Amino acid sequence: xxxxxxxxxxxxxxxxxxxxxxxxxxxxxxxxxxxxxxxxxxxxxxxxxxxxxxxxxxxxxxxxxxxxxxxxxxxxxxxxxxxxxxxxxxxxxxxxxxxxxxxxxxxxxxxxxxxxxxxxxxxxxxxxxxxxxxxxxxxxxxxxxxxxxxxxxxxxxxxxxxxxxxxxxxxxxxxxxxxxxxxxxxxxxxxxxxxxxxxxxxxxxxxxxxxxxxxxxxxxxxxxxxxxxxxxxxxxxxxxxxxxxxxxxxxxxxxxxxxxxxxxxxxxxxxxxxxxxxxxxxxxxxxxxxxxxxxxxxxxxxxxxxxxxxxxxxxxxxxxxxxxxxxxxxxxxxxxxxxxxxxxxxxxxxxxxxxxxxxxxxxxxxxxxxxxxxxxxxxxxxxxxxxxxxxxxxxxx
Length: 397
Prior knowledge:
It contains 13 helices and 13 strands. It has helices at 17-24, 37-42, 54-66, 112-127, 143-160, 166-174, 185-191, 203-219, 269-272, 313-328, 342-352, 362-367, 388-393, and strands spanning 28-29, 76-82, 100-106, 133-139, 223-225, 237-245, 259-265, 281-286, 306-310, 333-335, 356-360, 369-374, 380-384.
């Protein structure tokens, strides 16, 4: 866990509102990794798509290795603001040229990673004025699942694609996954009857997606399954999700679509970039286009005065919703939601010298309560979660 008096050089010291919001969920604001020619070469096997940018992931992995971030406690949550950039030679035009934010969750194999990215993204978008947000989810599973699914798509095309135009046939021959990338009426109709990737998941991939759905359902947000979310076959895996707006309260730029965020796992790139073994990596790109001058700059992150400890799976499911409730009430808390062991969390609380613990265990998760423990006197109270913000605000520190 990083503390303010031991800030690495790659952390930034100025923050805008989205980075402040991300920090409530444990994301550490860092400088945006710079894309270099080596990143382009490393992901040359990946096809270009504005929502699935392998180059940005390669740049982050390279920064992760260069700065020895693997020595830090994991899971590691990172966030950065992308600057608006001109199209670089050799780099396909992407939504990243519009600016926005990237959030990464590294070292967490469970569905908590996707849930944390979704929850933080929804909060950032809400703070930016977007309403009626909807989450769409799909899973393409692991490498074995994806290979099986690709064969099934080829079989579907061979059986049902004879009447397609010559241009459509050429595009599908180039990459069968173009069935989900092309937006002309012919292809939209053709993919409506295509097989779903969910039907070809391995047992392990199916279990992972089930866990993601349980976490997302606990967030209390609107979500649906979207079979067309298949990512980019050469580096994306497992859960793919998007966030859209179903309303028109916020006018979107002509350069953008109604997709406000896109996330997925990209663990397969880790070994491609020089890691000895594949580590779990997931991220979300948030596509915001607000002008630079509109961004207010803050010199400090919120200062948490409490440490949130969670014990057990049910407690983890409760935790993200609780953090959002506390954020809405401007109550930041230290937490290490990716850690399972109590000792690691208590060591973090000791090192930060907090005065109070907020404890969510199995019993509290079932009862919808939290135990507040005074670290000095060891006195503790059990409070309904709905009353927790008011209770914490009344504690004199």
